[in-house]
Amino acid sequence: MSTQRAAGSSEHFDVLIVGAGVSGIGAAYYLQKEHPSKSYAILEARGAAGGTWELFRYPGIRSDSDLHTFGYAFKPWESPKSIADADAILAYLRETAAENGIDRQIRLHHKVHRAAWSSRDACWSVDVERTDTGERIEVTCRWLFGAAGYYRYDEGYTPRFEGTHRFGGQIVHPQHWPKGLDYAGKRVIVIGSGATAVTIVPAMAGKAAHVTMLQRTPTYIMPLPSEDAIANLLRRLLPRKWAYALTRRKNIAVQRLFWRFCRRYPKLARRLIRYLNARQLPRGYPVDEHFNPPYEPWDQRLCMVPDADLFKAIGQGSASVVTDKIEAFTERGLKLESGRELEADIVVTATGLNLLPFGGIALAVDGVPVHLPGKVAFKGMMLDGVPNYAFAIGYTNSSWTLKVGLLCEHFCRLLAYMDAHGYTICCPERSEPAMPTRPLLDFGAGYVRRSLSELPLQGTQAPWLMSMDYYSDMKLLKEDSVEDSNLRFSSHDREEAAPTAKSGAEG
Protein backbone atom coordinates (compact mmCIF):
# COMPACT_ATOMS: atom_id res chain seq x y z
CA MET A 1 0.00 0.00 0.00
CA SER A 2 1.62 3.23 -1.09
CA THR A 3 2.03 6.19 1.21
CA GLN A 4 1.13 9.29 -0.75
CA ARG A 5 0.65 12.67 0.77
CA ALA A 6 -2.85 14.02 0.16
CA ALA A 7 -3.11 17.49 -1.35
CA GLY A 8 -2.92 20.19 1.29
CA SER A 9 -2.07 17.72 4.03
CA SER A 10 0.98 18.14 6.25
CA GLU A 11 1.49 14.40 6.80
CA HIS A 12 0.07 11.12 5.60
CA PHE A 13 0.32 7.73 7.31
CA ASP A 14 -0.72 4.21 6.47
CA VAL A 15 -2.15 3.87 9.97
CA LEU A 16 -2.99 6.56 12.49
CA ILE A 17 -3.45 5.28 16.05
CA VAL A 18 -5.41 7.46 18.48
CA GLY A 19 -4.35 6.97 22.10
CA ALA A 20 -0.96 6.16 23.67
CA GLY A 21 -2.14 3.89 26.46
CA VAL A 22 -1.94 0.13 26.78
CA SER A 23 -4.01 -0.42 23.60
CA GLY A 24 -2.20 2.12 21.44
CA ILE A 25 1.28 0.93 22.40
CA GLY A 26 0.20 -2.67 21.82
CA ALA A 27 -1.26 -1.83 18.41
CA ALA A 28 1.95 -0.06 17.41
CA TYR A 29 4.07 -3.05 18.42
CA TYR A 30 2.10 -5.53 16.31
CA LEU A 31 1.88 -3.13 13.39
CA GLN A 32 5.58 -2.45 13.11
CA LYS A 33 6.42 -6.12 13.75
CA GLU A 34 4.12 -7.46 11.03
CA HIS A 35 4.29 -4.47 8.66
CA PRO A 36 7.64 -2.75 9.17
CA SER A 37 7.33 -0.83 5.89
CA LYS A 38 4.06 0.86 6.84
CA SER A 39 4.14 4.35 8.26
CA TYR A 40 2.25 5.11 11.44
CA ALA A 41 1.94 7.61 14.26
CA ILE A 42 0.23 7.61 17.64
CA LEU A 43 -1.70 10.75 18.56
CA GLU A 44 -2.14 11.36 22.28
CA ALA A 45 -4.25 14.26 23.55
CA ARG A 46 -2.54 14.44 26.92
CA GLY A 47 1.00 15.50 27.69
CA ALA A 48 2.32 12.03 28.50
CA ALA A 49 1.90 8.46 27.32
CA GLY A 50 0.45 5.75 29.51
CA GLY A 51 -3.29 6.30 29.35
CA THR A 52 -5.13 5.28 32.51
CA TRP A 53 -1.91 4.61 34.39
CA GLU A 54 -0.57 8.09 33.79
CA LEU A 55 -3.88 9.86 34.42
CA PHE A 56 -5.07 8.51 37.75
CA ARG A 57 -3.07 9.55 40.81
CA TYR A 58 -5.26 8.62 43.75
CA PRO A 59 -3.77 6.69 46.69
CA GLY A 60 -3.19 3.00 46.11
CA ILE A 61 -4.07 2.95 42.40
CA ARG A 62 -3.29 -0.49 41.01
CA SER A 63 -4.47 -3.06 38.53
CA ASP A 64 -7.50 -5.20 39.25
CA SER A 65 -6.21 -7.93 36.94
CA ASP A 66 -2.99 -9.91 37.26
CA LEU A 67 -0.17 -8.48 35.17
CA HIS A 68 0.66 -11.83 33.60
CA THR A 69 -2.55 -11.47 31.60
CA PHE A 70 -2.89 -7.69 31.66
CA GLY A 71 0.67 -7.40 30.38
CA TYR A 72 1.54 -7.96 26.74
CA ALA A 73 2.03 -11.49 25.40
CA PHE A 74 5.33 -10.37 23.83
CA LYS A 75 6.85 -8.75 26.93
CA PRO A 76 7.15 -10.77 30.15
CA TRP A 77 6.00 -9.19 33.41
CA GLU A 78 8.95 -9.80 35.74
CA SER A 79 7.95 -8.18 39.02
CA PRO A 80 7.12 -10.57 41.88
CA LYS A 81 3.91 -8.57 42.37
CA SER A 82 1.21 -9.97 40.14
CA ILE A 83 -1.23 -7.24 41.23
CA ALA A 84 0.84 -4.12 40.63
CA ASP A 85 0.56 -0.41 41.37
CA ALA A 86 0.20 2.25 38.71
CA ASP A 87 3.84 3.37 38.80
CA ALA A 88 5.06 -0.17 38.05
CA ILE A 89 2.55 -0.57 35.22
CA LEU A 90 3.41 2.83 33.77
CA ALA A 91 7.12 1.96 33.86
CA TYR A 92 6.34 -1.32 32.07
CA LEU A 93 4.37 0.47 29.33
CA ARG A 94 7.03 3.10 28.79
CA GLU A 95 9.79 0.50 28.77
CA THR A 96 7.85 -1.43 26.12
CA ALA A 97 7.51 1.72 24.02
CA ALA A 98 11.19 2.64 24.40
CA GLU A 99 12.55 -0.85 23.70
CA ASN A 100 10.65 -1.02 20.42
CA GLY A 101 11.11 2.57 19.27
CA ILE A 102 7.39 3.21 19.64
CA ASP A 103 7.98 6.24 21.85
CA ARG A 104 9.48 8.04 18.84
CA GLN A 105 6.16 7.71 16.98
CA ILE A 106 4.01 9.22 19.76
CA ARG A 107 2.76 12.79 19.20
CA LEU A 108 1.79 14.25 22.57
CA HIS A 109 -0.72 17.12 22.91
CA HIS A 110 -2.47 15.99 19.72
CA LYS A 111 -6.23 15.81 20.23
CA VAL A 112 -8.33 14.38 17.43
CA HIS A 113 -11.66 16.18 16.96
CA ARG A 114 -13.01 14.90 13.65
CA ALA A 115 -12.19 12.37 10.97
CA ALA A 116 -13.75 12.35 7.50
CA TRP A 117 -13.50 9.37 5.14
CA SER A 118 -13.28 9.83 1.38
CA SER A 119 -14.06 6.76 -0.72
CA ARG A 120 -12.68 8.52 -3.80
CA ASP A 121 -9.26 8.92 -2.18
CA ALA A 122 -9.51 5.91 0.15
CA CYS A 123 -8.24 7.87 3.09
CA TRP A 124 -9.25 9.65 6.27
CA SER A 125 -8.73 13.38 6.74
CA VAL A 126 -8.20 13.90 10.45
CA ASP A 127 -8.70 17.23 12.21
CA VAL A 128 -6.18 17.51 15.04
CA GLU A 129 -5.70 20.18 17.70
CA ARG A 130 -2.27 20.84 19.16
CA THR A 131 -3.42 21.34 22.74
CA ASP A 132 -0.13 22.89 23.80
CA THR A 133 -0.24 25.62 21.14
CA GLY A 134 -3.89 25.73 20.02
CA GLU A 135 -2.84 25.10 16.42
CA ARG A 136 -5.16 23.01 14.20
CA ILE A 137 -3.60 20.68 11.67
CA GLU A 138 -4.87 18.08 9.22
CA VAL A 139 -3.36 14.62 8.98
CA THR A 140 -4.44 12.00 6.47
CA CYS A 141 -4.24 8.23 6.79
CA ARG A 142 -5.32 5.07 5.02
CA TRP A 143 -6.50 3.45 8.26
CA LEU A 144 -7.69 5.01 11.51
CA PHE A 145 -7.24 2.89 14.64
CA GLY A 146 -9.09 3.96 17.81
CA ALA A 147 -7.14 2.99 20.92
CA ALA A 148 -8.52 5.57 23.34
CA GLY A 149 -10.66 3.18 25.39
CA TYR A 150 -14.21 4.13 26.22
CA TYR A 151 -14.21 6.59 29.09
CA ARG A 152 -13.79 10.32 29.27
CA TYR A 153 -10.38 11.38 30.53
CA ASP A 154 -11.10 14.97 31.44
CA GLU A 155 -14.23 14.41 33.52
CA GLY A 156 -15.36 11.74 35.98
CA TYR A 157 -18.95 11.03 36.93
CA THR A 158 -20.39 12.68 40.03
CA PRO A 159 -24.12 12.48 40.75
CA ARG A 160 -25.86 15.61 41.99
CA PHE A 161 -25.81 15.81 45.79
CA GLU A 162 -27.86 18.28 47.77
CA GLY A 163 -26.01 20.78 49.93
CA THR A 164 -22.45 20.38 48.66
CA HIS A 165 -22.00 24.15 49.00
CA ARG A 166 -22.60 23.87 52.75
CA PHE A 167 -19.86 21.32 53.37
CA GLY A 168 -16.92 22.86 55.19
CA GLY A 169 -14.42 20.21 54.12
CA GLN A 170 -12.93 19.21 50.79
CA ILE A 171 -14.67 17.22 48.04
CA VAL A 172 -12.36 15.26 45.72
CA HIS A 173 -13.03 13.08 42.67
CA PRO A 174 -10.40 10.35 42.14
CA GLN A 175 -10.01 11.31 38.49
CA HIS A 176 -8.86 14.78 39.58
CA TRP A 177 -6.80 13.96 42.67
CA PRO A 178 -5.08 17.10 44.01
CA LYS A 179 -1.33 16.84 44.13
CA GLY A 180 -0.10 16.75 47.70
CA LEU A 181 -3.52 16.33 49.32
CA ASP A 182 -2.91 16.07 53.07
CA TYR A 183 -5.29 13.62 54.68
CA ALA A 184 -3.12 12.60 57.62
CA GLY A 185 -5.20 12.47 60.80
CA LYS A 186 -8.38 13.46 58.97
CA ARG A 187 -11.78 11.81 58.73
CA VAL A 188 -12.42 10.61 55.20
CA ILE A 189 -15.60 9.35 53.55
CA VAL A 190 -15.25 7.52 50.24
CA ILE A 191 -18.56 7.40 48.36
CA GLY A 192 -18.74 4.28 46.21
CA SER A 193 -18.10 0.55 46.29
CA GLY A 194 -16.40 -0.20 42.98
CA ALA A 195 -12.77 -0.90 42.12
CA THR A 196 -11.68 2.68 42.79
CA ALA A 197 -13.31 2.85 46.22
CA VAL A 198 -11.98 -0.49 47.42
CA THR A 199 -8.50 0.61 46.35
CA ILE A 200 -8.60 4.05 47.98
CA VAL A 201 -10.04 2.99 51.34
CA PRO A 202 -7.19 0.73 52.56
CA ALA A 203 -4.56 3.00 50.98
CA MET A 204 -5.79 6.05 52.92
CA ALA A 205 -6.58 4.13 56.10
CA GLY A 206 -2.94 3.99 57.12
CA LYS A 207 -2.62 7.78 57.50
CA ALA A 208 -6.16 9.08 57.94
CA ALA A 209 -7.86 9.21 61.32
CA HIS A 210 -10.57 6.96 59.88
CA VAL A 211 -11.89 6.08 56.43
CA THR A 212 -15.53 5.20 55.81
CA MET A 213 -16.63 3.53 52.59
CA LEU A 214 -20.19 4.74 52.06
CA GLN A 215 -22.03 2.57 49.56
CA ARG A 216 -25.56 2.61 48.26
CA THR A 217 -25.28 -0.99 47.04
CA PRO A 218 -22.71 -3.66 47.99
CA THR A 219 -20.27 -5.06 45.45
CA TYR A 220 -18.81 -8.55 45.12
CA ILE A 221 -15.27 -8.37 46.48
CA MET A 222 -12.69 -11.13 46.16
CA PRO A 223 -9.47 -11.28 48.19
CA LEU A 224 -6.47 -12.68 46.34
CA PRO A 225 -2.69 -12.74 46.86
CA SER A 226 -0.75 -9.84 45.38
CA GLU A 227 2.00 -12.30 44.43
CA ASP A 228 1.49 -15.34 42.22
CA ALA A 229 3.47 -18.09 43.97
CA ILE A 230 3.40 -20.39 40.94
CA ALA A 231 4.59 -17.61 38.64
CA ASN A 232 7.48 -16.75 40.93
CA LEU A 233 8.45 -20.42 41.23
CA LEU A 234 8.37 -20.92 37.45
CA ARG A 235 10.53 -17.83 37.01
CA ARG A 236 13.21 -19.43 39.19
CA LEU A 237 13.06 -22.77 37.37
CA LEU A 238 12.56 -21.85 33.72
CA PRO A 239 13.74 -19.29 31.17
CA ARG A 240 11.81 -16.06 31.64
CA LYS A 241 9.78 -16.31 28.42
CA TRP A 242 8.74 -19.90 29.13
CA ALA A 243 7.80 -19.06 32.70
CA TYR A 244 5.76 -16.06 31.58
CA ALA A 245 3.97 -18.00 28.83
CA LEU A 246 3.01 -20.83 31.20
CA THR A 247 1.83 -18.43 33.88
CA ARG A 248 -0.18 -16.51 31.32
CA ARG A 249 -1.90 -19.65 30.08
CA LYS A 250 -2.64 -20.76 33.63
CA ASN A 251 -4.15 -17.42 34.60
CA ILE A 252 -6.23 -17.15 31.42
CA ALA A 253 -7.68 -20.58 32.18
CA VAL A 254 -8.35 -19.71 35.84
CA GLN A 255 -10.05 -16.41 34.93
CA ARG A 256 -12.28 -18.10 32.37
CA LEU A 257 -13.10 -21.03 34.65
CA PHE A 258 -14.10 -18.77 37.53
CA TRP A 259 -16.21 -16.53 35.29
CA ARG A 260 -18.04 -19.53 33.81
CA PHE A 261 -18.54 -20.98 37.29
CA CYS A 262 -20.10 -17.71 38.49
CA ARG A 263 -22.42 -17.47 35.49
CA ARG A 264 -23.47 -21.12 35.54
CA TYR A 265 -23.81 -21.53 39.30
CA PRO A 266 -24.55 -18.03 40.64
CA LYS A 267 -25.99 -19.16 43.98
CA LEU A 268 -23.01 -21.37 44.72
CA ALA A 269 -20.62 -18.59 43.61
CA ARG A 270 -22.42 -16.13 45.87
CA ARG A 271 -21.98 -18.46 48.84
CA LEU A 272 -18.31 -19.01 48.03
CA ILE A 273 -17.57 -15.28 47.80
CA ARG A 274 -19.49 -14.64 51.03
CA TYR A 275 -17.48 -17.37 52.77
CA LEU A 276 -14.19 -15.88 51.63
CA ASN A 277 -15.29 -12.42 52.79
CA ALA A 278 -16.47 -13.68 56.19
CA ARG A 279 -13.14 -15.46 56.76
CA GLN A 280 -11.31 -12.14 56.43
CA LEU A 281 -13.69 -10.02 58.53
CA PRO A 282 -14.00 -9.81 62.33
CA ARG A 283 -16.22 -12.38 64.05
CA GLY A 284 -19.83 -11.23 64.11
CA TYR A 285 -19.35 -8.67 61.33
CA PRO A 286 -22.62 -7.99 59.40
CA VAL A 287 -21.42 -9.55 56.15
CA ASP A 288 -24.89 -9.74 54.61
CA GLU A 289 -25.51 -6.04 55.20
CA HIS A 290 -22.34 -4.77 53.54
CA PHE A 291 -21.09 -7.55 51.22
CA ASN A 292 -24.23 -9.14 49.78
CA PRO A 293 -25.08 -7.51 46.42
CA PRO A 294 -28.65 -7.74 45.06
CA TYR A 295 -27.37 -8.94 41.66
CA GLU A 296 -25.59 -12.10 40.56
CA PRO A 297 -21.77 -12.46 40.41
CA TRP A 298 -20.33 -10.93 37.22
CA ASP A 299 -23.50 -9.02 36.35
CA GLN A 300 -21.00 -6.33 37.20
CA ARG A 301 -17.24 -6.72 37.38
CA LEU A 302 -15.93 -8.30 40.56
CA CYS A 303 -13.58 -6.18 42.63
CA MET A 304 -10.28 -7.77 43.60
CA VAL A 305 -8.51 -6.78 46.82
CA PRO A 306 -4.85 -7.89 46.99
CA ASP A 307 -3.82 -9.56 50.24
CA ALA A 308 -7.32 -8.78 51.60
CA ASP A 309 -6.15 -5.23 52.37
CA LEU A 310 -9.68 -3.79 52.59
CA PHE A 311 -10.78 -6.47 55.05
CA LYS A 312 -7.62 -6.01 57.10
CA ALA A 313 -8.27 -2.27 57.39
CA ILE A 314 -11.81 -3.01 58.58
CA GLY A 315 -10.52 -5.57 61.07
CA GLN A 316 -7.96 -3.10 62.43
CA GLY A 317 -10.64 -0.45 62.91
CA SER A 318 -9.00 2.09 60.60
CA ALA A 319 -11.78 1.69 58.03
CA SER A 320 -15.46 0.87 58.08
CA VAL A 321 -18.33 0.30 55.64
CA VAL A 322 -21.73 1.99 55.78
CA THR A 323 -24.53 0.88 53.46
CA ASP A 324 -27.08 3.68 53.11
CA LYS A 325 -28.25 6.44 50.79
CA ILE A 326 -27.17 10.08 50.94
CA GLU A 327 -29.85 12.62 51.73
CA ALA A 328 -27.61 15.69 51.65
CA PHE A 329 -24.26 17.19 52.51
CA THR A 330 -24.14 19.12 55.75
CA GLU A 331 -21.61 21.56 57.19
CA ARG A 332 -19.82 18.68 58.91
CA GLY A 333 -20.32 15.76 56.56
CA LEU A 334 -23.18 13.71 55.14
CA LYS A 335 -26.71 13.14 56.32
CA LEU A 336 -28.07 9.74 55.33
CA GLU A 337 -31.62 8.66 54.58
CA SER A 338 -31.60 6.54 57.73
CA GLY A 339 -31.15 9.75 59.74
CA ARG A 340 -27.56 9.00 60.60
CA GLU A 341 -24.92 11.69 60.05
CA LEU A 342 -21.33 10.91 59.11
CA GLU A 343 -18.73 13.57 59.89
CA ALA A 344 -15.84 14.13 57.53
CA ASP A 345 -13.00 16.47 56.70
CA ILE A 346 -12.63 15.05 53.17
CA VAL A 347 -15.25 13.40 50.96
CA VAL A 348 -13.98 11.35 48.00
CA THR A 349 -16.60 10.83 45.29
CA ALA A 350 -15.53 7.47 43.83
CA THR A 351 -18.80 7.46 41.94
CA GLY A 352 -17.64 6.25 38.56
CA LEU A 353 -16.72 7.23 35.04
CA ASN A 354 -18.28 9.04 32.13
CA LEU A 355 -18.08 7.10 28.89
CA LEU A 356 -16.83 8.75 25.72
CA PRO A 357 -17.12 6.31 22.81
CA PHE A 358 -14.05 6.19 20.55
CA GLY A 359 -12.44 9.19 22.18
CA GLY A 360 -15.32 11.48 21.24
CA ILE A 361 -14.12 11.72 17.63
CA ALA A 362 -16.84 12.83 15.22
CA LEU A 363 -16.67 10.45 12.26
CA ALA A 364 -18.11 11.05 8.78
CA VAL A 365 -18.15 8.83 5.69
CA ASP A 366 -18.33 10.62 2.33
CA GLY A 367 -19.86 13.66 3.95
CA VAL A 368 -22.44 11.78 6.03
CA PRO A 369 -21.95 11.87 9.84
CA VAL A 370 -21.61 8.45 11.47
CA HIS A 371 -24.42 7.89 13.98
CA LEU A 372 -22.77 5.51 16.44
CA PRO A 373 -25.97 4.17 18.09
CA GLY A 374 -27.09 2.96 14.67
CA LYS A 375 -23.89 1.01 13.98
CA VAL A 376 -23.12 -2.62 14.79
CA ALA A 377 -19.66 -3.85 15.74
CA PHE A 378 -18.02 -6.39 13.43
CA LYS A 379 -15.75 -8.90 15.23
CA GLY A 380 -15.63 -6.41 18.10
CA MET A 381 -13.17 -4.23 16.17
CA MET A 382 -14.91 -2.45 13.25
CA LEU A 383 -18.26 -0.73 12.57
CA ASP A 384 -20.64 -1.60 9.78
CA GLY A 385 -20.64 0.97 7.00
CA VAL A 386 -17.43 2.64 8.22
CA PRO A 387 -14.46 1.81 5.95
CA ASN A 388 -10.87 1.40 7.13
CA TYR A 389 -11.69 2.11 10.77
CA ALA A 390 -10.71 -0.26 13.57
CA PHE A 391 -10.89 0.08 17.33
CA ALA A 392 -9.74 -1.77 20.42
CA ILE A 393 -12.01 -2.45 23.38
CA GLY A 394 -10.84 -5.08 25.84
CA TYR A 395 -12.66 -7.58 28.00
CA THR A 396 -14.94 -6.54 30.83
CA ASN A 397 -14.83 -9.99 32.44
CA SER A 398 -11.10 -10.58 32.19
CA SER A 399 -7.86 -8.70 31.56
CA TRP A 400 -8.39 -5.88 29.05
CA THR A 401 -5.17 -6.56 27.16
CA LEU A 402 -6.00 -10.17 26.31
CA LYS A 403 -8.63 -9.00 23.82
CA VAL A 404 -6.53 -6.09 22.56
CA GLY A 405 -3.67 -8.39 21.61
CA LEU A 406 -5.95 -10.64 19.55
CA LEU A 407 -7.59 -7.65 17.84
CA CYS A 408 -4.23 -6.14 16.90
CA GLU A 409 -2.96 -9.42 15.45
CA HIS A 410 -6.14 -9.81 13.41
CA PHE A 411 -5.87 -6.21 12.21
CA CYS A 412 -2.35 -6.91 10.94
CA ARG A 413 -3.55 -10.04 9.13
CA LEU A 414 -6.30 -7.96 7.54
CA LEU A 415 -3.75 -5.45 6.25
CA ALA A 416 -1.64 -8.26 4.82
CA TYR A 417 -4.67 -9.73 3.04
CA MET A 418 -5.51 -6.36 1.49
CA ASP A 419 -1.94 -5.83 0.33
CA ALA A 420 -1.81 -9.31 -1.20
CA HIS A 421 -5.00 -8.69 -3.21
CA GLY A 422 -4.42 -5.05 -4.09
CA TYR A 423 -7.32 -3.72 -2.01
CA THR A 424 -7.30 -0.26 -0.44
CA ILE A 425 -10.76 -0.26 1.17
CA CYS A 426 -12.31 -2.65 3.67
CA CYS A 427 -15.83 -2.14 5.03
CA PRO A 428 -18.15 -4.40 7.06
CA GLU A 429 -21.69 -4.52 5.72
CA ARG A 430 -24.67 -6.18 7.36
CA SER A 431 -26.11 -8.88 5.13
CA GLU A 432 -29.30 -8.58 7.20
CA PRO A 433 -30.01 -4.89 7.92
CA ALA A 434 -32.81 -5.86 10.32
CA MET A 435 -30.69 -8.36 12.26
CA PRO A 436 -31.42 -8.55 16.03
CA THR A 437 -29.08 -6.44 18.13
CA ARG A 438 -28.25 -5.68 21.74
CA PRO A 439 -26.02 -3.16 23.56
CA LEU A 440 -22.32 -3.19 22.67
CA LEU A 441 -21.31 -3.66 26.32
CA ASP A 442 -23.67 -6.22 27.79
CA PHE A 443 -22.64 -5.26 31.29
CA GLY A 444 -24.57 -4.02 34.32
CA ALA A 445 -22.17 -1.37 35.63
CA GLY A 446 -23.75 2.03 36.22
CA TYR A 447 -21.34 3.89 33.95
CA VAL A 448 -22.31 1.56 31.11
CA ARG A 449 -26.07 1.77 31.70
CA ARG A 450 -25.92 5.58 31.74
CA SER A 451 -24.35 5.64 28.27
CA LEU A 452 -26.04 2.83 26.34
CA SER A 453 -27.88 5.30 24.12
CA GLU A 454 -24.56 6.73 22.89
CA LEU A 455 -22.86 3.42 22.07
CA PRO A 456 -22.95 1.22 18.97
CA LEU A 457 -24.66 -2.15 19.09
CA GLN A 458 -23.64 -5.77 18.75
CA GLY A 459 -25.42 -8.67 17.14
CA THR A 460 -26.43 -11.97 18.70
CA GLN A 461 -23.94 -14.18 16.88
CA ALA A 462 -20.52 -14.03 15.25
CA PRO A 463 -19.11 -12.08 13.49
CA TRP A 464 -21.36 -9.34 14.93
CA LEU A 465 -21.04 -10.57 18.50
CA MET A 466 -18.88 -8.61 20.97
CA SER A 467 -17.34 -11.75 22.38
CA MET A 468 -16.08 -11.81 25.97
CA ASP A 469 -14.53 -15.27 25.69
CA TYR A 470 -10.80 -15.49 25.05
CA TYR A 471 -10.86 -19.00 23.56
CA SER A 472 -13.70 -18.13 21.17
CA ASP A 473 -11.79 -15.03 20.11
CA MET A 474 -8.62 -17.06 19.62
CA LYS A 475 -10.44 -19.08 16.98
CA LEU A 476 -12.22 -16.14 15.36
CA LEU A 477 -9.40 -13.59 15.37
CA LYS A 478 -6.22 -15.64 15.31
CA GLU A 479 -7.05 -18.92 13.56
CA ASP A 480 -9.94 -18.23 11.17
CA SER A 481 -9.48 -16.45 7.83
CA VAL A 482 -9.97 -12.71 7.63
CA GLU A 483 -12.40 -13.36 4.77
CA ASP A 484 -16.05 -13.04 5.66
CA SER A 485 -19.24 -12.69 3.63
CA ASN A 486 -20.04 -9.56 5.65
CA LEU A 487 -16.72 -7.89 4.83
CA ARG A 488 -16.44 -6.02 1.52
CA PHE A 489 -13.09 -5.24 -0.06
CA SER A 490 -12.46 -2.83 -2.93
CA SER A 491 -9.89 -0.51 -4.44
CA HIS A 492 -10.45 3.18 -4.98
CA ASP A 493 -8.54 3.12 -8.27
CA ARG A 494 -10.80 0.46 -9.77
CA GLU A 495 -14.25 1.15 -11.12
CA GLU A 496 -16.00 -1.87 -9.63
CA ALA A 497 -16.12 -3.00 -6.03
CA ALA A 498 -14.54 -6.35 -5.36
CA PRO A 499 -16.57 -8.68 -3.12
CA THR A 500 -14.84 -10.90 -0.61
CA ALA A 501 -12.76 -13.53 -2.38
CA LYS A 502 -13.84 -17.12 -1.91
CA SER A 503 -10.61 -18.81 -2.90
CA GLY A 504 -9.93 -19.95 0.65
CA ALA A 505 -6.70 -17.97 0.87
CA GLU A 506 -5.82 -17.03 4.39
CA GLY A 507 -4.99 -13.53 5.58
Automatic annotation (TrEMBL):
Cofactor(s), names only, from the UniProt record: FAD
Keyword NADP: yes
Keywords (A to Z) from UniProt: FAD, Flavoprotein, Monooxygenase, NADP, Oxidoreductase
Region (Disordered): 486-507
NADP in keyword set: yes
Family matches, as Gene3D superfamilies: FAD/NAD(P)-binding domain
Coiled-coil features, chain-numbered ranges: none
One family name in Pfam for this protein: Pyr_redox_3
SUPFAM superfamilies: FAD/NAD(P)-binding domain
Alphabetized GO MF terms: monooxygenase activity
Taxonomy, superkingdom: Bacteria
InterPro entries in UniProt: FAD-binding_MO (IPR051820), FAD/NAD-bd_sf (IPR036188)
Protein family: Belongs to the FAD-binding monooxygenase family.
Record protein name field: Predicted flavoprotein CzcO associated with the cation diffusion facilitator CzcD
Organism in which the protein naturally occurs: Stigmatella erecta
Lineage of the species this protein comes from: Bacteria, Pseudomonadati, Myxococcota, Myxococcia, Myxococcales
